[in-house]
Design a protein that fits this description.
two-stranded antiparallel ribbon, elongated, alpha+beta, 6 strands
Amino acid sequence: MRNCEVCQNEYRNTFEVIMRGRSHIFDSFECAIHALAPRCRHCGCRVVGHGVEADGIAFCCAHCARQEGYQSMKDQLSISFLE
């Protein structure tokens, strides 16, 4: 059994994630996200889905990117849920 690098839980079903050539061991996706997902520069939340990137900076959405001065940023969603 191996230990999760985030919570130190000893668990028989840990899994390995290799990121940028470095191995990481986790017991849950929650711990993997906590350790590896980038944080939005504006609001600080973890970027888990389809965030946006400007000048190599991660944002959770276009709104946050615009708040940091990247006015041309748009979210990728092309349909309106209000129709």
